[in-house]
Design brief:
- Helix content is about 85%, strand content about 0%.
- The chain is an all-alpha fold and about 170 residues long.
- α4 (about 75-95) packs antiparallel against α5 (about 100-125).
- It is globular.
């Protein structure tokens, strides 16, 4: 399951970067909901399972993969790696400091991570502050993060329940 999550994380981040490189800032709010919301939820799931350096390597690898697939997206890949690294650090600090269920902690940390990512990414990628894009991305990332965190939480609870049933029948 860990390797599947890592693969999905890298694919989502890479698709988000390549689509922004191809279609520009207008695609950013859609990406924010679909791909970045997914990455925010997966990032929190991976935070519990990976060391900080492993998470950093995963973020950097996704930026390199984007660049290798489309060298013309170099500025997008750099912006993405910077924004994701800063957002991941903020997300991680908030996630670790929060109390409560994984779902509650994930959504609180997603707000912090989304704020950093939404400000840093378009500013670097497009060369200036774009308040409309920043606000649309922020709202879409929070909404997408909530939906993806809900789905992840439901799937994890289901998987845990199945594992418990298998263990009790094996005993």
């Amino acid at each position: 399951m860990l390797y599947v999550a890592i693969g999905i994380y890298m694919i989502a981040m890479t698709l988000a970067n390549l689509s922004v490189a191809a279609f520009g800032p207008a695609i950013s709010p859609i990406n924010a909901f679909l791909f970045i919301g997914l990455d925010l939820a997966l990032r929190d799931w991976l935070h519990v399972r990976l060391r900080l350096w492993q998470m950093g390597a995963l973020i950097a690898s996704s930026g390199v993969l984007t660049y290798l697939l489309n060298p013309a997206s170099g500025k997008i890949a750099v912006a993405s790696a910077c924004a994701f690294t800063l957002a991941a650090l903020v997300d991680w600090v908030v996630f670790v400091k929060m109390k409560g269920s994984w779902f509650s902690r994930a959504n609180k940390s997603n707000v912090a991570g989304a704020a950093v990512d939404s400000l840093v990414f378009p500013t670097i990628a497009f060369g200036g502050l774009m308040p409309g894009i920043v606000l649309l991305q922020f709202a879409a990332k929070i909404a997408g993060g909530f939906v993806w965190a809900y789905l992840a939480d439901s799937l994890l609870k289901s998987a845990d329940h199945q594992n418990q049933e298998q263990e009790s029948t094996a005993a």
